[in-house]
Amino acid sequence: MARQKWAEAAESYKKIIDSDVYRIHPDFTALFAASNVANGEFVLTSQYLEDVYGHVLPQYLYPETWGGWHQFSPYNELVKAYACSDGRPIEESDLYDPEDPYTNRDPRLDYTVLISDRSVFKGQTYIARPGTTSPDRFNRYNWSGYCIRKFMDENFEGNLMNFGGNFAVIRYPEVLLGYLESKMEAGDPIDQALLDATINLVRGRQNVAMPAVTVTGTDALRETIWRERRVEFAFEGLRYYDVLRWGIATQELNRQFTGMKLTNNPGSYNDFPVDAEGYLIYQRRNFKEGVNELWPIPLSELQVNGNLTQNPGY
To answer: How is the chain split into domains, by residue range?
Structure first.
């Protein structure tokens, strides 16, 4: 749990909140469009400008169908983290249908991940299933079948290698969720007013409108905050540092990951390897507990400073 300076962290977050400068933007999808460069949700951004100082992120992210390189494929473990529209996890919700797993879910799932035969961009359906001529069919390259939707701009018609949209380093939800987490871990009392002023502002944005959080017990609320951070900030560069900070990196990163759902009859499906729920068995990742929490110190630095010692395991 890092240095656990929760009280100090809460105080810092509260100063930002009390400045009354930032606001939750009502439209989650618009946050990442090139035209939305000056909204009140951005606390800190990397600044770009088409034709002056553009960047190439869309070229890497977009599926080949739309002229991109489809370099990144989300894991199904992230997809499963999005709750159902009743606010309950898929393991608990009556709305969840394992044979139709992408319906009745937190709207941020569709705003964040392209799902085969479901997601539409610029009037065209994303296709990743095998047996098609789609350039994005998962078995063409080593893809999970999913693609990142979050940074795709419906209105952008320019060169994908010259995109002018800003990249958010800190959004106001990070402040609100950080404040709530810090108060909780500091042992301060949590009431509904605090929940409504923090996590429920994030979940309640106009085109997300997820049910309000009402749990105040530490264990249940911690799990809720962790899930909220995972789905709200997907692909924004915070997840890795979150799992390190929470001490769950080994649990989350040393495992078999899965991809898109291929069948509702996994017992008789033989085209591609699938798990017991019919999801593609995708990539195995390894994380060594007690080693990979830290990076190795470069040999050149060890040679410059004799007082340095290498981190354990390297």
So the answer is: 6-20+172-203+213-247
Residues 49-80 have pLDDT tens digits of 999 999 999 999 999 999 999 999 999 999 99
Q: Which backbone phi and psi does 260 adopt, to 5 degrees?
A: -65, 160
**Contact criterion met (CB below 8 Å) for 64 and 188:** no
Query: Which residue, among 154, 82, 157, has the nearest Cα to 113 in the 3D structure?
Result: 82
What is the spatial distance between Cα 49 and Cα 163, in angstroms, rounded to a whole number? 7
The CATH code of the domain at 6-20+172-203+213-247 is 1.25.40.900
The tokens 């409108």 sit on which residue? Answer: 209
Its pTM stands at 0.94
Residues 30 and 207 sit within 8 Å (Cβ to Cβ): no
Tokens coding 45: 């951004």
Which 3 state secondary structure label does DSSP give 71? Answer: coil
Q: CB 190: neighbour CB atoms within 10 A? A: 17
